[in-house]
């Protein structure tokens, strides 16, 4: 009998005086004890990003009633960032880091650190923390950002992409999330990425049962690669020619570990195109 224990993969941090201290205080509280990992290589199983490879990646530090947590996000226009609802819900404000690579280095060249107030955070009204349904939120930035090689939005899927399941396709997930399943491990100092494969919905449902909805998209972890705590809300994209299209936002993994053969689960962005259009000024293409 399979158990359906799942965990959302934001990382809780302790209250602290400055962002620098915050990064040092990142602690794993949601993670259950796991057996020593057979899959020791590390995003788990990924590689360090090189500069400007992921200009749409955002780092998010949430302040919720004085304590903090860490997530990823993704720039989808010069004014809007998408993330997971479980990251944004209840935040008094969110610090958004754009154009970053070494996340602890707030002075990084060309990087933009912006604060988004609660009034500019929209969490999906039907987000349900019990079955992790509608795990999506949108942040309106306090200013339009200048697009450059370092800070550049990713394409949203089109309405015609919404008809495809992308099963078997190679995709790229990125984030500063934990790089292994060891208890107590913290976020990665550098942005990392992994190339993974989209798993058929039926296979994903075999593992997670009723938690998998048509609004999810899963990737395999069979090769020891996947998302982990701290990657929540961050992107998984597909490369098509020169362009990348956003397919998913990191949502949850098995509580047994990030890459215990259980799939990585994402919000399927194409399912929420109308919702995104409704809460932004973005035109979705057909
Ligand atoms: C990746 O970045 C980490 C942290 O800066 C560093 O320790 C490691 O050597 C890098 N790995 C490679 C292959 O460059
Ligand atoms: C959250 O915000 C409050 C008020 O600005 C501040 O005192 C506190 O240090 C912040 N906590 C974190 C974890 O950023
Ligand atoms: C959230 O999901 C659970 C499990 O499916 C369900 O029992 C509950 O009624 C849902 N809550 C809301 C507010 O829809
Ligand atoms: C954010 O909220 C603070 C306090 O309510 C306010 O002073 C500030 O002007 C707001 N900033 C924006 C960009 O709305
Ligand atoms: C954006 O670019 C304009 C024109 O080059 C410049 O004046 C402005 O300061 C830039 N804004 C930011 C936030 O970098």
From TrEMBL:
A GO-annotated cellular component: extracellular region
Domain Peptidase S1 positions: 43-281
CDD domains found in the cross-reference section: Tryp_SPc
Segment forming the signal sequence: 1-19
Family matches, as InterPro entries: CLIP_Serine_Protease, Peptidase_S1_PA, Peptidase_S1_PA_chymotrypsin, Peptidase_S1A, Trypsin_dom, TRYPSIN_HIS, TRYPSIN_SER
Subcellular location: Secreted
Protein keywords: Disulfide bond, Hydrolase, Protease, Secreted, Serine protease, Signal, Zymogen
Claim: Lipid metabolism is one of the keywords in the record: no
Cell membrane among keywords: no
GO molecular function, a single term: serine-type endopeptidase activity
GO biological process annotation, one example: proteolysis
Superkingdom classification of source: Eukaryota
UniProt xrefs under PANTHER family: AT07769P-RELATED, PTHR24260
Protein name: Peptidase S1 domain-containing protein
Protein source organism: Hermetia illucens (Black soldier fly)
């Amino acid at each position: 009998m399979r158990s359906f224990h799942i965990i959302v993969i934001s990382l809780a941090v302790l209250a602290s005086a400055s962002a620098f201290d915050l990064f040092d205080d990142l602690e794993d509280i949601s993670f259950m004890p796991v057996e020593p990992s057979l899959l020791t290589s590390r995003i788990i199983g990924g590689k360090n990003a090189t500069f400007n490879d992921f200009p749409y990646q955002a780092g998010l530090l949430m302040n919720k009633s004085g304590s903090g947590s860490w997530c990823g996000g993704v720039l989808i226009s010069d004014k809007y960032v998408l993330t997971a609802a479980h990251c944004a819900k209840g935040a008094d404000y969110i610090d958004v880091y754009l154009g970053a690579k070494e996340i602890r280095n707030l002075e990084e060249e060309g990087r933009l650190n912006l604060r988004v107030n609660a009034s500019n955070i929209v969490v999906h009204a039907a987000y349900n923390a019990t079955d992790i349904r509608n795990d999506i939120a949108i942040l309106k930035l306090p200013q339009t950002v200048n697009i450059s090689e370092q800070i550049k939005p990713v394409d949203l899927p089109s309405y015609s992409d919404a008809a495809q399941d992308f099963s078997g396709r190679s995709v790229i997930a990125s984030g500063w999330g934990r790089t292994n399943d060891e208890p107590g491990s913290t976020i990665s100092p550098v942005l990392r990425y992994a190339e993974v494969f989209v798993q058929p919905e039926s296979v994903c449902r075999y593992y997670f049962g009723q938690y998998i909805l048509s609004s999810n998209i899963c990737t395999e972890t069979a090769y020891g690669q996947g998302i982990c705590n701290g990657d929540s809300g961050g992107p998984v994209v597909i490369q098509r020619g020169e362009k990348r299209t956003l397919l998913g936002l990191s949502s949850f993994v098995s509580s047994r570990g990030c890459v215990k053969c259980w799939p990585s689960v994402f919000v399927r962005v194409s399912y929420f195109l109308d919702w995104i259009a409704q809460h932004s000024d973005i035109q979705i293409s057909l």
